[in-house]
Amino acid sequence: MPFTAKVITTDEWGAESAGSFKKTVPKFIVIHNTDNKNPPDDVSQGTVDGGKKLARQIQEDHIKRNRWNDSGHNFLNTTGGIILEGRHGTLNAVKQGMCVVSAHAKQDGNRLGGGNNSPGIENEGNFKTFKMQQKQWDSLVELCVSLCDSCNINPKNIRGHRDFSNTDCPGDWLYGELPRLRQEVADKLGTTLKEDEPLLQLDAIGQDVIELQQKLTDKGFSPGAIDGDFGENTRQAVIAFQRSVGLLDDGIVGNDTRKALGLT
Ligand SMILES: [Zn+2]
Fold this sequence. Notes:
Elements: H1 10-13, E1 23-24, E2 29-33, H2 48-64, E3 75-77, E4 83-85, H3 90-95, E5 99-100, E6 120-123, H4 134-151, E7 158-160, H5 172-176, H6 178-189, H7 207-218, H8 232-244, H9 255-261
Parallel strand pairs: 2-6, 2-7, 3-6
Antiparallel strand pairs: 1-5, 3-4
Helix pairs in contact: 4-6
The chain binds zinc ion.
């Protein structure tokens, strides 16, 4: 499937001009909330004109307050289910399987890396407890389906901003709904989430962990004591190993990492 989601471009919403941005191959989709008011007090009021107004407000805020070169995000999804392009060049890039480097998910410490190389979707509202309305949810699913397909992103890599940065974004309710989002996107794409993949991760214990720690040690990535307890030191060693071989550095040992380590 090509990219089919309907998107209002920066030209169409009257964005301030900005330079061009480097393009890279994205690994993730990063879900945000704008932290604006929820319906019935939402800025966009669910209309196309309201969506354009909100897009202009956010761009101005990102340039003036955050001192970024342009909107930090790649897409805005309003309460009315209207999707608008964020950072200039995003739409053309994702149609080619790439994304423009943006500024929506600064990597903090030991969290996931690569957020700013991946499409970031701002969802209008605040989803700490507020439940997203169906129209906005449907357009979010549609946009994620198009992005996963055109950029070859596995739906399991749909993540929340808090996975990358020290923030509550996208709010507890929306973050808690990400498994449902991944599943709905996977269903529409006709792919599986490979949930049956055996994973070794933080807090795992046992013989499998001992074998993992031994392999990491052999390869020069010290997990600390070889004690069969997958703690923070082991997680850090896994992340360092994953980075060294160009794998997704999530600190979780799935099939790809297992294979790269030579674990059977
Ligand atoms: Zn965010």
